């Protein structure tokens, strides 16, 4: 008896019917017998519980789904919202500004949006939500400005730099951009750990296929070349995939297709914890003779390894900075602290300037 486990000790009384039997329960002694996990009825009951848990538990991690089987009509609408519809809704003058966000990044999205709003470009922003929690939260606060391109990802693993989840998250980027180009729109992509200090569009000179920023910390002259830099020690350039502007040209589409191809041939593994940036650089290097490329001003688009670490250079280039990228540092709290140290964490005092308002 000591080895036998029971789901409950209370006898099953009439007039209830055993859900696993075709005949009603009687008042015989068997009706008062507890159900053992090792019995047929016990195993069937356990199986039913596992099925129920299997349906409902995957939703439990999202704060937006206390009753996941009861989507509101508005949530159902956004679940079916297409990229074509979303881009058409937000685009201005044939251009859309895109970011890709999973739920843990919402505070950074809000901070970035405040800076974009200060430059009067917030209406052009489309948030590509990588999970349903982000999709519903953004569209609840700012209808029409978020879209999810299936499949949805696991938001709890996608934000850990160097993880397979992070690779899966960032590796989708060129496909998203290619689809927007195929719809005929110009597209600017930004990571959301960025802050706009000026309107970046004023620096998009000419009619080139693709614009991008250097990720090197070595200081360039203010009048540096806008050509693709020569390869470094690893045989490729060191361009950042965090800020890209593309026109819907054959050249830009070729670059995206090559980027997708590079990511497919160099997938993430435990031995080689890849991310999307090396693939982007290989794509740039291999298509440079076919694509009209433009390297943006280092002073206007400095990498975090330069802007946050070289006070002398920052002072010398004051007034020239357009977008600051908070890279060369890993971890949410470290990034937020650095932004605060440089008065760039805007959500503390200026959340009302974001289209999303103050996030709870």
TrEMBL record:
GO terms for cellular component: Golgi apparatus. The chain crosses the membrane at residues 43-61. One of its GO terms (biological process) is rhamnogalacturonan II biosynthetic process. InterPro entries: Nucl-diP-sugar_transferase (IPR005069), UDP-D-xylose:L-fucose_XylT (IPR052636). Residues 14-27 have a biased composition (Low complexity). GO terms for molecular function: UDP-xylosyltransferase activity. Residues 121-339 form the Nucleotide-diphospho-sugar transferase domain. Pfam families: Nucleotid_trans. Keywords: Membrane, Transferase, Transmembrane, Transmembrane helix. It comes from the Eukaryota. Residues 1-27 are annotated as: Disordered. This is Nucleotide-diphospho-sugar transferase. It comes from Arabidopsis suecica (Swedish thale-cress).
């Amino acid at each position: 008896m000591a080895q036998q486990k029971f789901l409950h000790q209370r006898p099953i009384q009439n007039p209830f019917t055993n859900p696993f039997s075709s005949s009603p329960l009687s008042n015989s002694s068997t009706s008062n017998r507890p159900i053992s996990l090792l019995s047929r009825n016990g195993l069937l009951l356990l199986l039913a519980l596992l099925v129920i848990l299997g349906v409902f538990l995957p939703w439990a991690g999202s704060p937006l789904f206390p009753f996941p089987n009861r989507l509101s009509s508005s949530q159902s609408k956004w679940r079916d919202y297409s990229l074509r519809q979303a881009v058409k809704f937000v685009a201005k003058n044939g251009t859309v500004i895109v970011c890709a966000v999973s739920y843990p990044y919402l505070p950074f999205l809000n901070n970035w949006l405040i800076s974009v709003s200060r430059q009067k470009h917030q209406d052009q922003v489309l948030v590509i939500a990588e999970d349903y929690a982000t999709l519903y939260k953004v569209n609840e606060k700012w209808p029409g400005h978020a879209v999810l391109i299936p499949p949805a990802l696991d938001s709890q693993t996608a934000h850990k730099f160097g993880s397979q989840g992070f690779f899966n998250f960032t590796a989708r980027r060129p496909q998203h951009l290619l689809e927007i180009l195929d719809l005929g729109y110009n597209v600017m992509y930004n990571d959301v750990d960025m802050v706009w200090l000026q309107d970046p569009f004023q620096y998009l000179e000419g009619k080139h296929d693709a614009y991008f920023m250097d990720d090197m910390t070595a200081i360039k002259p203010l009048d540096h070349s806008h050509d693709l830099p020569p390869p470094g020690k690893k045989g490729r350039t060191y361009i950042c995939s965090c800020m890209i502007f593309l026109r819907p040209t054959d050249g830009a589409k070729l670059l995206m297709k090559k980027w997708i191809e590079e990511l497919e041939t160099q997938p993430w593994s435990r031995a080689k914890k890849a991310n999307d940036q090396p693939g982007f650089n290989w794509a740039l290097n291999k298509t440079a003779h076919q694509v009209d490329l433009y390297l943006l001003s280092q002073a206007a688009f400095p990498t975090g390894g330069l802007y946050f670490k070289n006070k002398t250079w920052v002072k010398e280039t004051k007034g020239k900075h357009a977008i600051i990228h908070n890279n060369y540092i890993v971890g949410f709290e470290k990034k937020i602290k650095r932004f605060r140290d440089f008065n760039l964490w805007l959500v503390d005092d200026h959340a009302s300037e974001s289209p999303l308002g103050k996030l709870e």
